[in-house]
Amino acid sequence: MGKNYRSELVGVFGCPIDENPTGVMEEAGFAAKGLDFRYITIKVNEGDLGAAMQGLRAMNMRGINLTIPHKVEVLKYLDELSEAAEIIGAVNVVVNNAGKLWGENTDGKGFLTSLKDAGVSPQGKTVMILGAGGAARAISVECALAGAEKIIIVNRNTQRGQALVDLLKEKTPAAVEYIPWQGAIVVPQGTHILVNATSVGLFPNVDQKPEIDYDTITADTVVTDVIFNDPNSLFLQAAAARGAQTINGLGMLVNQGAVNFTLWTGEEAPLEIMTEALKREFGL
Ligand code: NDP
Q1: pLDDT band at residue 202 using 50, 70 and 90 as cut-offs
Q2: For strand 93-97 and strand 63-66, is the pairing parallel, antiparallel, or unpaired?
Q3: Which of 38, 96, 139, 274 has the fewest CB atoms in 10 Å of its CB?
Q4: Which residue ranges form the domains of the chain, and what is each CATH number?
């Protein structure tokens, strides 16, 4: 048998994409495991996804991540979807199984793992989610599928908020409530897990936090943020000041990357090495 000089190719399609740090974490994982995989950060403009997906097939790439603006559009180029991806209606990772393209959404799974790592489970709990965009959709569906008793959606844009509420009611067993975002939102008593799934607080806007009544957060609330590029966001600082347990967005990012790693390579992801690589990248 001759030597194999061919690397397995994975990566990400998105636009803008230049500042996406995922490759740092995945490449660190491949190196640690001695896997001949390459993660390539690829700019694919809106409207060019069809050609890019054809390219993926032509080059026998093992898989791809999708980010803005391709997570929904990619569905029409796939052969199969996971249950969660089908409900969420968006895909952030594709696996190429000998020409058959399978799509999954691992954002919400990464979120659930970061909860679990902190000793928290949504089962039987009330979960309040700020936002109704892609991250909120993935998180709310996974929490509902993991047995959350009630999901409360809070969103500024009523149409988007209501669409997520309708989807959760139709496709999951959880009880669902919608609160339109007007003024400082009160966190209802009995809310176990509060999630910031908006983009408020995202770097460089680290001086902003979602408009809620922070005095309604108690020591019994677990407060989590999807923002990862300021792991000590103002939102989490305000929650910690009320005695709440807090979980930042780094765990979600690393854990979804770890699930993707396993889907592509079939190997367990070296979580610590991937986390360290990201932290170094963020100067933490
Ligand atoms: P979307 O653009 O799909 O959704 C953005 C959401 O934020 C919408 O619900 C929007 O509300 C809300 N929002 C934006 N600005 C405000 C504001 N000033 N006040 C209240 N609500 C606001 O983005 P995504 O869901 O894809 O991403 C959201 C965040 O999650 C990003 O910061 C992203 O980096 C992060 N993320 C983190 C991941 C991780 O692994 N840690 C994974 C995926 C995403 P409206 O509908 O009213 O406009």
Answers
A1: confident
A2: antiparallel
A3: 38
A4: 8-105+251-281 (3.40.50.10860), 108-247 (3.40.50.720)
128: its two tokens: 């309040």
**Could you tell me if 233 and 248 are in contact, meaning their C-beta atoms sit under 8 angstroms apart?**
yes
Per the CB < 8 A criterion, the answer to whether 200 and 210 are in contact is yes
State the pTM of this model.
0.93
Q: In angstroms, how far apart are the furthest CA atoms of the chain?
A: 68
Structure tokens given for 108: 């919400």
57: helix, strand or coil: helix
- The yes-or-no verdict on residue 211 having pLDDT over 90 is yes
Average pLDDT over residues 24-49: 98
Mutate to test the pocket of ligand 1, among 105, 198, 247, 254 (most ligand atoms within 8 A of CB): 198
- CA 146, 167, 185, 149 torsion: positive or negative? negative
Read off φ and ψ for residue 63, nearest 5 degrees: 175, -175
How does residue 230 score in pLDDT terms, banded at 50, 70 and 90?
confident
User: At 270, is the pLDDT very low, low, confident or very high (cuts 50, 70, 90)?
Assistant: very high
228 lines ligand 1 (CB under 6 A): yes
Closest C-alpha to ligand 1, atom 32: 199
Q: Compute the chain's Rg from CA coordinates.
A: 19
71 is annotated as an active-site residue: yes
CA nearest 195: which of 158, 163, 169, 164?
A: 164
**Are residues 25 and 110 in contact, defined by beta-carbon separation less than 8 angstroms?**
no
Q: Quick check: 74 and 44 in contact, CB under 8 A?
A: no
Distance 133 CA to ligand 1 centre (A): 6
